[in-house]
Hints:
Layout: E1 5-12, H1 19-28, E2 41-50, E3 53-62, H2 69-76, E4 81-87, H3 91-95, H4 97-108, E5 117-122, H5 133-142, E6 146-149, H6 158-171, E7 175-176, E8 179-180, H7 181-187
Amino acid sequence: MNYDDKCQLLIIGDSTVGKTSILSKYSSKTFNENYLATVGLDFFTKDEMIDNKIIRIKIWDTAGQERYKALTRCFFQKAQGVIIVFDVCNQKSFNDLHFWIESMNTQLSEDIDSIPVIIIGNKIDLPKRVVSKETAEKYAKENNFHYFETSAKTGDGVDNAIKEIARKVINNGGKKNGKDILRLSKVEKKSKCC
Length: 194
């Protein structure tokens, strides 16, 4: 299928918060309760109609385990937008948002202000919620990010969150600080990890 524009997103967060499940629900409308942990990186691609344009959305799915965090850092350099996910039923995953934001800030340094970022609170379908919507919205606002809630199981909020960050990337022109992503990647290819 032909497309008018494309955007490349990175999804990050602790292991077991539902990153792969969100992407599976988004890209193929499926949900599997028995997902295995992502090993290293995977990606999902979907063509989406946004503002009367066909946008090819590619989302890199990262492993949340400590041993893969160095690999994840390499993909920050190629991201045009970042999705940070936590589990609303897991306080530690919410507390760890600070780590993911710091990691992102370190890796993106001068580009951080020009890259759209959203926070997703996932698993809103489960009854044992420990992080309130108000707390999460406040945290996102304090960090100048938009907040969305999703259920990868039911699909609630999934399409809306991903379409919104893709729209922000496209409206940003797919650029970091006014530089084309492809040119930026060539300059930064000094790194051995990507």
